[in-house]
Design brief:
Largest sheet: 2 strands, antiparallel
Radius of gyration: 34 Å
Low-confidence stretches: none
Shape: rod-shaped
Mean pLDDT: 76
Helix content: 40-55%
Number of strands: 2
Strand order of the largest sheet: 1-2
Length: 241
């Protein structure tokens, strides 16, 4: 109200004095110490001036815009969510570590598929981010050589060749075969495991001919039960309940 009683000439002189004082303070203070009330007042006053007049403030226009956004955000009462996927519980991490320890030749896709079969939903990317380096060390320790698929060579991924490679890596290369009868018995048991239990990437980590009923809900609080097959060479996991 006191400003309304002053003349225009007096106001202009006072503005010049204030501007000069602000210029002197800018040379002495690199970063002013502002309180929350100061930020609110300056942000509100900036709304009364055109964007071209924001040069009189001792903060940048970007800072004024950020203050405006903060003021607008305070009007909302919803809870802000943190970016990224929600974390997994300790029981899920323990299950992943257990399968990786009990099956050193399994990759992240295989572990994710086995856990999905017992009702524990964990994406393959989550398993890979946590155990990528450990898996590489395991492969190197057992002498496994990783062969990259040639570029533009679809025949290199033939189904029969892939199955032969799989059965060798997971079964026949890891146990001593006595004779032809023993080989047929081992292959028959592995074939049952391959078709009825083993998760497949092309089947969304499901077996080609599932004999078990996939759980309808996540059973993250239940640790899976392990069944040994091929005399303990391989493991199958099922819900404990």
């Amino acid at each position: 109200m006191a400003l309304l009683g002053r003349g225009d000439r007096c106001k202009e002189a006072e503005i010049l004095v204030l501007r000069h004082q602000v210029a002197v303070l800018r040379r002495q203070v690199r970063r002013p110490d502002l309180r929350d009330g100061d930020r609110v007042l300056l942000a509100a006053l900036s709304r009364l001036l055109p964007r071209s007049g924001w040069g009189i403030f001792f903060v940048t226009p970007a800072t004024l815009l950020r203050w405006h956004r903060d003021l607008a955000a305070r009007r909302w009462t919803y809870r802000r969510s943190r970016p990224g996927r929600p974390g997994k519980g300790k029981h899920v991490r323990d299950a992943v570590v257990r399968l990786a320890r009990e099956n050193p030749t399994w990759g992240y896709q295989r572990i994710s598929g086995e856990l999905a079969g017992v009702g524990i939903r964990v994406p393959p990317s989550t398993v890979r981010a946590k155990f990528a380096g450990a898996f590489d060390e395991v492969f190197a320790s057992i002498g496994v050589r990783v062969i990259k698929t040639p570029v533009r060579a679809p025949q290199a991924n033939a189904i029969a060749e892939r199955w032969v490679g799989t059965v060798r890596r997971e079964c026949t290369d890891r146990r001593l075969i006595y004779d032809d009868r023993h080989l047929r018995k081992v292959l028959a048991e592995y074939e049952r495991h391959y078709n009825h239990h083993r998760p497949h990437r092309a089947k969304d980590r499901r077996p080609p001919q599932p004999t078990r009923t996939s759980p309808g809900t996540d059973l993250d609080t239940t640790q899976p039960r392990r069944d040994e097959i091929l005399d303990g060479l391989m493991n199958e996991y099922r819900p404990a309940a």
